[in-house]
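Hello support,

Our group uses your service weekly, and this is the first time we've seen a run hang past the timeout. The protein is S1 RNA-binding domain-containing protein. I'm not sure whether the cause is the sequence or the server load. Input pasted verbatim:
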Amino acid sequence: MVEVDSIVEGKVIGIAKFGAFVELEDGSKGLIHISEISNQFVKDVNDFLKVNDRVKVKVLRVSPDGKIDLSLKRVVDEEKEYATKLEQSKATLEQKMSRFLKESQEKLASLKTSRDTKRRR
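Update from on-call engineer: The timeout came from a worker crash unrelated to the input. Re-ran successfully.
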């Protein structure tokens, strides 16, 4: 059984005016409501999904009667958020490396200066 908040893969097995039906890897079936397909306005589900499309979806809810609510847009949002955090951490790493190199060069220059001063004596 799928767990709420997990991201799973599945195949679109049906399209309706109100959403798309997806068969998940474990054989269970769920619905991506039209409001959970995209952050853009979705007038027609067929403009975004086709039968047999492979999709990655987030499990929003599993009701006691076994109905599974899915979201396509929340997977995209999470992937964008992850990419943003990754870029931020890379920038932070680059800043740290830059500061380290600058400080190392300053210390090296200072050591050379003190060594040259000692030689002159």
